[in-house]
Amino acid sequence: MTPELPNILISAKDLYLKAGRHDLVEAVSLEVSEGEIVSVIGPNGAGKTSLLKLLLGLYKPDRGSIRRRLGLRVGYLPQKTSIDPVLPLSVARMMTLTESFSRKEVETALAETGVLSLIDEPLQTLSGGEFQRMMLARALLREPELLVLDEPAQGVDHLGEAELYGLIGKIRDQRGCGVLMVSHDLHVVMAATDRVLCLNRHLCCEGEPQEVTRHPEYLRLFGMEAGSRLAVYSHHHDHVHGLSGNVETTEFKQAP
Amino acid sequence: MSFLDDFIWRAVIAGAGVALVAGPLGCFVVWRRMAYFGDTVAHSSLLGVALGLLLGFNVMLGVFAAGFAVALVLSGFLREKRLSGDTVLGTLSHASLSLGVIVISLMTWLRVDLMGYLFGDILAVSHTDLYWVYGGGTLVLVLLVLLWRPLLAVTVDQELARAEGIEASRYELMLMLIIAAVIALAMKIVGVLLVTSLLIIPAAAARRLSRTPEQMALMAAFVGVLSVLLGLFASFQFDTPSGPSIVLASLMLFLIGQIPNFRKL
Q1: Cα distance between residue B59 and residue B123, in whole Å
Q2: Residue-wise pLDDT tens digits, B68-95
Q3: By the CB < 8 Å criterion, does B85 face chain A?
Q4: Which of residues 165-194 of B touch A (CB under 8 A)?
Q5: What is the value of pTM for the model shown?
Q6: Residue A234 is part of a domain; what is its CATH number?
Q7: CA-CA to A237 of 20 to 30 Å: which in A74, A161, B22, B122?
């Protein structure tokens, strides 16, 4: 047994996930420690969500190993949760979906993310931002040691986005939990993160935000636009792995 | 044996028992968009009937076994995703119904009332049927209550539930078992072709009248029982076939529930 630092929450070594003939995740290793915010960025089809699902145990890796700290409590905010309107669910009921909590506990969690007033509303009436905050509160109820957030700011406008990442930072400060999140929205994430992993099926580069933004692999992935104010990307078909998950990798391979 | 000797009372009690169970279960069928799935399982019932008659055990047990087997095959096919779900369901649904009719017609030594199986024969409910309905029904209700939270969690978001430690596949399997069981119990009441209506229509009617999943389940049970009572009453009154009368009664309740602001009336 290799001695493990007690504050490492989850570590993955050399993960592979195949989808059909090509790899969706290739040789990815990472770890998340207590009190650390780690962001995974990358273009569409880069395997960000797949990587999270591997770490959560929702997918089985084709190769590689994942070690979680014993009894690790995880709070998860999935990328897409669409609640069928035929299901009459209120916020309060959604909060106690997999475990029961007292009304008081539910109220405290909702207050922490600023959506207490919605407690008895039907889920279908929530706006994108309200929904994400509710889901975040839901994750917090479980007193997580590790928060796994898949595109937490989706459906949230620009102002709300900065607020939401601010909230995530505050939660980390107060609770000391580790945060692993996926985003494709570069600038806000860069400001709110301790460590950035730049993923395009394999790990292109990783490090502190300032280092990563100067890394040649990062610049190649996100191009000049990474330097501009708006986080627009995914127009550069110059990376050897291709950008879209649906497209054969080989078609985009550059001549050496 | 008192009033149970009266076939009308047996019909009422059996029908109400089945509706009581079908309502809450039907909510899951509606929430998970399994209406056609249920239909396909139901259409396999004739195979189960043939099986039961051939091997000489209770027909409900045969229907349950055939339904569960078909449900397993179906979910395997649906996971493959090579064909769209509705194509797979449409194929198996009609194929199993046809196979059932053919197998039964080949069993020339038996006189089988095909119409009764297809459209229900609630007035022919026997004492034994009653025991099955209430024994099986109680078991299903207890299971539903015990498994309610994980079943609902898996229904709302399967991956979220799994990430939070719920063994989704185990509960999905249980749900299929329960669906097969309830279809077997309900077949006698409204028949193979109409059985899913007892699952779906009360649940659909309950939707607008409820604010929580639990309310919807109770409301669906209530609407179901009311449909059986109204349907049977109409059937006696106007001498109409009882199975279809029950279905139309539930449709009527569904339509009443759709009246705007019905909750506030």
Answers
A1: 17
A2: 998 888 888 877 777 788 888 888 889 9
A3: no
A4: 165-166
A5: 0.84
A6: 3.40.50.300
A7: A161
Dihedral of alpha carbons A86, B178, B139, B221, sign = positive
- What CATH number matches the domain at B2-193, 3.40.190.10, 3.30.450.20, 1.10.10.10, 1.10.3470.10? 1.10.3470.10
Quick check: A78 and B166 CB within 8 A? Answer: no
**Which residues have a Cβ under 8 Å from the Cβ of A124 and sit 6 or more positions away?**
A83, A85
What is the DSSP secondary-structure string of B107-166?
A: -TTS---HHHHHH--GGG--HHHHHHHHHHHHHHHHHHHHHHHHHHHHHH-HHHHHHTT-
How far, in Å, CA of B263 to CA of A139, rounded? Answer: 34
Could you give the percent of chain B with pLDDT greater than 70?
Answer: 97
User: Cβ contacts of residue B1 below 8 Å, gap of 6+?
Assistant: B127
Structural domains of chain A, count: 1
B64 contacts B181 by C-beta, under 8 angstroms: yes
Chain B neighbors of A78, CB-CB under 8 A: 157, 159-160, 163
CA of B118 vs chain A CAs: smallest distance (Å): 29
Q: Please, which residues have CB within 8 angstroms of residue B86's CB and are 6 or more apart in sequence?
A: B36
Contact A87 B149 (CB under 8 A): no
Q: What does each of the 256 residues of chain A score in pLDDT, given as a tens digit?
A: 444 555 899 999 989 998 877 888 888 899 899 999 999 988 888 888 999 999 999 999 999 999 988 888 999 999 877 788 889 999 999 999 998 999 999 999 999 999 999 999 999 899 888 999 999 999 999 899 999 999 888 878 877 888 888 899 999 999 999 999 998 777 777 777 888 888 888 888 888 877 777 787 777 777 655 554 444 333 333 344 434 444 443 333 333 3
Amino acid at A118: L
Would you call B166 and A56 a contact, using CB atoms and an 8 Å cutoff? no
Strands A8-19 and A74-77 turn out to be unpaired
A-chain residue closest to B30, CA distance: A86
Top residue of A82, A96, A98 to mutate, by most chain B CBs within 10 Å, is A98
Query: Which pair of tokens denotes residue B216?
Result: 């919807």
Contact A87 B213 (CB under 8 A): yes
- What does the alpha-carbon distance between residue A60 and residue A25 come to, in Å, rounded to a whole number? 12
Binding-site residues on chain A for chain B (CB distance < 8 A): 53, 56-58, 74, 76, 78, 81, 83-84, 86-90, 93-94, 97-100, 122, 142, 148
Would A234 be classed as within a structural domain?
A: yes
